[in-house]
Amino acid sequence: MSQFSEHIRSLREKRKIRQREVAACLKADTAFISKLEKGERQARREQVLLLAELFNVDKEELLSLWLGEKVYDVLKNESAKGGVAKQALKVAENKIDYNNKKKTK
Q1: Which residue, 4, 23, 86, 91, is most buried by CB atoms nearer than 10 A?
Q2: What pLDDT does 2 receive?
Q3: 16 Cα distance to chain centroid
Q4: Quick check: 32 pLDDT over 90?
Q5: What is the set of domains in the chain, with CATH numbers?
Q6: What is the mean pLDDT of the segment spanning 64-74?
Q7: Is pLDDT of 60 > 80?
Q8: Which element (helix H / strand E) includes 87?
Q9: Residue 8 and residue 62: Cα distance in Å, rounded?
C-alpha cells in the first residue's frame, strides 16, 4: 500500500466519512475508492484536489504525496541499487530549478 492511499484512508476514517460519500465527491463508484485506498488504483490530479477539499487538508501536501508515488512508480525498477533512479531525480530537480529561475526573470 502506498503512503498516499494510506493517508486517504486515514483521513476518511478520522472524519468518519463513508467510501460512498468520497465516491460521490469524486463522481466515481465505491469500488474505485476501495481500490484507491488499497493502492490498487491511482487518482487523477483533479481527484486529488477534490480530496484535499473534501478532507480540508493542504492541497500541496496531498499533491506532493500523490506525485511522489507517481514518480516512484516510474523509477522503482530502474536499478537494484537505485543509482539510475537517483540520477534521474537529480536531473529532474535541476530542470525544475532552471525553469523556476527562468520564470522569475
Answers
A1: 4
A2: 87
A3: 22
A4: yes
A5: 3-77 (1.10.260.40)
A6: 93
A7: yes
A8: helix 83-104
A9: 9
